[in-house]
């Protein structure tokens, strides 16, 4: 392995150790989600949660849709703007000046680029080679510094860590970050506000930042409501982690 690559990886490891405070090594509180709701109120759309006639007829229950759906009404088309705005707003003045970085195949990258542009915070996004061209283009149009690197997300993430360490950028994870989880959790507050007699909330799972925040919000406001996680059968990493009792690869 070339010496330059080794040095870069060692620098990235050192940087990660110094920035564990940003990763979600602690349990966030409902108060943080409430604070996030107020913090992002003027920058993120309060999306509707409307009845779905087809799903209600199929299931014989009253089904409302917010994500599958209508949080795509956010400017960049996904709920990711909630967490991105909340995280960016809490950076120190020095961090805002230096800028932020993230590895993402699309939605988190777009959200960070857009909200960074609104706040005047430089954003660098490292996207794997397979990232959809439309999302790469959108990030560029939003003013982000786009770096295409890696055959998979892990390689893109490793390269982002190296850049962050080299340039002193704040790394904002797409899901494993307290501010991100709190921001996504604002959707849970909205759901409870919008749906009377809430029995259950069905939440898609990827990195699990959304379900972590939504679960915390909903359970604090409607303890009796059930939270149902849904993930793709072919990449059921969340189910595997629950079964193992720890994160798995």
Topology:
Blueprint: H1 3-18, H2 30-40, E1 50-51, H3 53-59, E2 64-65, H4 80-89, H5 93-98, E3 100-103, H6 107-119, E4 123-127, H7 133-141, E5 145-148, H8 153-167, E6 170-171, H9 178-194, E7 200-204, H10 209-221, E8 226-230, H11 237-244
Parallel strand pairs: 3-4, 3-6, 4-5, 7-8
Antiparallel strand pairs: 1-2
Your description of this structure?
This protein is an alpha/beta fold and 249 residues long. The protein has 2 domains: 3-22 and 78-171, Rossmann fold; 30-72 and 178-244, Rossmann fold, CATH 3.40.50. It contains 11 helices and 8 strands. The chain has helices at residues 3-18, 30-40, 53-59, 80-89, 93-98, 107-119, 133-141, 153-167, 178-194, 209-221, 237-244; strands at residues 50-51, 64-65, 100-103, 123-127, 145-148, 170-171, 200-204, 226-230. β7 (200-204), α10 (209-221) and β8 (226-230) form a beta-alpha-beta unit. The protein starts with a helix and ends in a 5-residue tail after the last helix. The mean pLDDT is 89.
Write the H/E string, N to C: HHEHEHHEHEHEHEHEHEH
Average predicted confidence as pLDDT: 89
Overall structural class, as computed from helix and strand content, comes to: alpha/beta
Whole-number total of structural domains = 2
* Order of adjacent strands in the largest pleated sheet: 5-4-3-6
User: How many runs of DSSP E, i.e. beta strands?
Assistant: 8
The level-1 CATH class of the largest domain: Alpha Beta
Main β-sheet: number of strands, strand sense, barrel status? 4 strands, parallel
- Write down the oligomeric state: single chain
Q: Total number of helical segments? A: 11
Here the CATH topology of the largest domain equals Rossmann fold
Strand content bin: 5-15%
Low-confidence stretches: none
Separation of the first and last Cα atoms? 24 Å
State Rg.
18 Å
Please name the CATH architecture of the largest domain. Answer: 3-Layer(aba) Sandwich
Tertiary shape = globular
> In which range does the helix fraction lie?
40-55%
């Amino acid at each position: 392995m070339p010496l330059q690559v080794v040095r870069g990886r060692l620098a990235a490891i050192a940087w990660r150790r110094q920035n564990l405070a940003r990763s979600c090594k602690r349990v966030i509180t409902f108060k943080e989600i409430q604070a996030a709701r107020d913090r992002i109120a003027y920058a993120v759309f309060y999306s509707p949660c409307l009845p779905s006639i087809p799903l209600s007829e199929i299931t014989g229950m009253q089904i409302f849709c917010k994500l599958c759906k209508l949080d795509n009404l956010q400017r960049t088309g996904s709920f990711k703007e909630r967490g991105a705005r909340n995280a960016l707003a809490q950076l120190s003045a020095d961090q805002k000046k230096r800028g932020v970085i993230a590895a993402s195949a699309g939605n988190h990258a777009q959200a960070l680029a857009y909200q960074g542009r609104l706040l005047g915070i430089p954003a660098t996004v490292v996207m794997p080679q397979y990232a959809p061209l439309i999302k790469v283009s959108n990030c560029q149009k939003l003013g982000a510094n786009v770096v295409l690197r890696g055959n998979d997300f892990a390689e893109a993430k490793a390269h982002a860590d190296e850049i962050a360490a080299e340039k002193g950028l704040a790394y904002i994870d797409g899901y494993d970050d307290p501010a991100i989880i709190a921001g996504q959790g604002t959707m849970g507050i909205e759901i409870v506000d919008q749906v009377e007699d809430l029995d259950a909330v069905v939440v898609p799972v990827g990195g699990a930042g959304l379900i972590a925040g939504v679960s915390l919000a909903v359970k604090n406001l409607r303890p009796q409501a059930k939270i149902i996680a849904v993930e793709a059968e072919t990449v059921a990493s969340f189910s595997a982690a629950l079964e193992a009792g720890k994160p798995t690869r």
